[in-house]
Design a protein that fits this description.
Layout: H1 2-8, H2 13-34, H3 36-43, H4 50-97, H5 107-130, H6 132-152, H7 154-201, H8 203-208, H9 216-263, H10 269-310, E1 330-337, E2 347-354, E3 359-363, H11 370-377, E4 385-390, E5 393-394, H12 400-405, E6 407-410, H13 421-426, H14 434-443, H15 447-452, H16 470-484, E7 488-492, H17 500-514, E8 520-524, H18 528-533, E9 536-541, E10 544-549, H19 551-557, H20 560-579
Parallel strand pairs: 3-8, 3-9, 6-7, 7-8
Antiparallel strand pairs: 1-2, 1-4, 4-5, 9-10
Helix pairs in contact: 2-4, 2-6, 3-4, 3-10, 4-5, 5-10, 6-7, 6-10, 7-9, 7-10, 9-10, 14-16, 16-17, 19-20
The structure holds adenosine-5'-triphosphate.
Length: 580
């Protein structure tokens, strides 16, 4: 555990210093106790020899002062270290995050990241200080005491070793049993949580069926949780009792042995008293260890989560990456790609050429691989076979920062910061002038949205942009891409039903985006107008390119694209018909 903690920190010097202080204190405490043997020898006799005891008493006094000073120094150092250690580890995690492939950032991984950076790191750092010290003391102090007892009487030392061995076996067992009980309890708690969510979600149905207070499944889950809790507590308590029993029985055994040694005149009274005091100091920290079991397990779980996170493979970057994109020509050649953990390839031998200054529309049924094409261009993942090139350079040879600097990605669900429209745009280029801001707002058809808003450019968009509709948020993102002067823009056009005004505005905004002479736009198109205005349409099906051509050419050939276009048109008319 101590070793794992030590290796977790990039710069463990502070931890090493802190623990060294604790090691010195624990050993010093043991040695001070050892002074009892010569002192009692000198004092516990018919005529106490104070002169013989004096040097030991002086030594003990000096030791006590040193111990006190160390305690004064180490306590504040420990508390301050908690914050410093957490900050160090957070920095290391954030550095690691910045080297992970963007494809790693799924909802589940993001939640894990948030947990690792906040709770896990803070708790691990706190526990490293608060738990590390007592664990070191509770193991080193008894070890020092045993060494001293060996000098005084080897038989008592052997007995203490036996108690320690039996105690450590019981302790391990207690830790294992309580870990198992905790897993079962977590499982039962998760079951209750999902039933509770279900209860909330299906309230109308439950009320209609007269089960407003919960389904039989819900009650069964609650019963299971209660039983698991009771059984778990019972099971976990047994080894704990056993351990306490081992420690208590151990002390009785030491008492009996020392009494026998004294009665049989194998040791003097002074030694016997010293041995009993030392045995008590040996057993007390051992007894404390059981209290630390829960905290140690919590720390192990946190460390494991942080270690797993730090072991996530990073995005490979060449030693001498290409630091310039000469022209934004995008090219996929024979690309095959399977998602990590995926069963079938999401793309198979895909070849697509998008010339600089053109707009390519990707179409195809759901799951055909359109999003995957854009993810490989943005290097969220690397292709297994084939190549993705930008300006003739393999994206794997490009500096990832250069690639992302020259690229804008407009997702279906645009995330905006809870800030003003102006600041959300300036994120792309803080130094942009007002003329530039107004120009991109016009081109992205955002100007009409801004005019309507009460605070104009200063209107706050709310949490994640909730004050704006999906279509309006996408217009902000398009304006942002224009302001960034990104030469490669990847757009996942909003597929949800938009009102006619938003629909026309987005189509126009994407067309304006593509009008930039030196800009390559790849759009996952969901609207006929976007398809019609593209320079090239690539039709995908089951991860393969099935058609490529201009919209007019593909309409004439009557293939997949023509069929999808007809479907789009029908859906459009159907929607207009129902509205009117
Ligand atoms: N993160 C992922 N992990 C595993 N498989 C994935 C992942 N994302 C997509 N897939 C799979 O890859 C295939 C292609 O998905 P992709 O999202 O590229 O299709 P799409 O054409 O964009 O679909 P849609 O129009 O529904 O967004 C699908 O079979 C999908 O299930």
């Amino acid at each position: 555990m101590i070793r794992r903690l030590y290796h977790l920190w990039p710069d463990p010097k502070l931890l090493a210093r802190l623990w060294s202080l604790t090691v010195i204190q624990a050993v010093l405490q043991g040695l001070l106790l050892g002074l009892l043997v010569p002192i009692l020898h000198a004092v516990v006799r018919q005529e106490p020899d104070i002169a013989a005891a004096t040097p030991w008493l002086v030594l003990g006094g000096i030791g006590a002062v040193v111990y006190g000073l160390l305690a004064i120094v180490s306590d504040p150092v420990g508390y301050a270290a908690g914050g410093v250690l957490a900050a160090q580890l957070r920095k290391q995690l954030m550095r690691h995050v910045s080297t992970l492939p963007l494809g790693w950032f799924t909802a589940a991984h993001k939640a894990r990241l948030a947990r690792a950076v906040t709770a896990d790191v803070g708790d691990a750092a706190h526990l490293a200080v608060v738990i590390g010290n007592p664990v070191i003391t509770s193991t080193l102090l008894p070890a020092t005491v045993v060494a001293i007892v060996f000098v005084a009487d080897w038989r008592v030392a052997v007995l203490l070793c036996v108690i320690a061995l039996v105690g450590s076996w019981t302790l391990r067992r207690a830790a294992r049993v309580s870990a198992e009980a905790e897993i079962e309890l977590e499982r039962a708690a998760a079951d209750v949580a999902s039933r509770a969510i279900e209860l909330g979600q299906v309230q109308p149905v439950l009320r209609a069926a007269g089960h407003a207070h919960g389904t039989p499944r819900m009650h069964a889950a609650l019963d299971r949780h209660r039983d698991t809790y009771r059984e778990g507590m019972d099971r976990a308590r047994r080894p704990f009792f056993l351990y306490t029993g081992v420690v208590a029985t151990g002390f009785v055994a030491v008492l009996a042995l020392v009494a026998w040694l004294m009665v049989s005149e194998r040791v003097e009274v002074a030694t016997a008293v010293a041995l009993l005091v030392l045995a008590a100091r040996f057993l007390q920290p051992l007894g404390n260890l059981i209290e630390l079991i829960g905290a140690l397990r919590a720390m192990t779980n946190k460390i494991t989560r942080i270690e797993e996170f730090l072991a996530t493979p990073v995005l490979p970057v060449p030693a001498e990456p290409v630091r310039r994109i000469v022209d934004p020509h995008v090219e996929l050649t024979g690309v095959t790609f399977t998602y990590p953990g995926g069963e079938a390839p999401a793309l198979r031998e895909v070849t697509i050429r998008c010339r600089a200054g053109t707009t390519t529309a990707l179409v195809g049924p759901s799951g055909s691989g359109k999003t995957t094409v854009t993810r490989l261009v943005a290097r969220f993942f690397d292709a297994e076979e084939g190549q993705v090139r930008i300006g003739g350079v393999d994206v794997r040879d490009l500096d990832p920062e250069v690639l992302l600097n020259d690229m804008a990605i407009i997702f279906q669900d645009v995330y905006l910061f809870d800030d003003t429209i102006e600041n959300n745009l300036r994120l792309a280029r803080p130094e942009a002038t007002w003329d530039e801001l107004r120009e991109v707002a016009r081109a992205a058809r955002l100007d009409e949205v801004i005019e309507r808003l009460p605070g104009g450019w200063n209107t706050r968009v709310g949490e994640a942009g909730a004050q704006l509709s999906g279509g309006e948020r996408q217009r902000v993102a398009i304006a942002r891409a224009m302001l960034k002067q990104a030469r490669i823009v990847l757009v996942d056009e909003a597929s949800s039903a938009l009102d006619p005004e938003n629909e026309a505005a987005i189509t126009q905004a994407i067309a304006n985006l593509g009008a930039g002479r030196d800009r390559t736009v790849i759009v996952i198109a969901h609207r006929p107008a976007t398809l019609a205005s593209a320079d090239q349409v690539v039709s995908l099906d089951a991860g393969r390119v099935v058609e490529t051509g201009t919209p007019a050419e593909l309409l004439r050939t009557g293939g997949t694209f023509a069929r999808i276009s007809r479907q789009y048109e029908r859906a459009r008319h159907w929607r207009i018909g129902t509205v009117s």
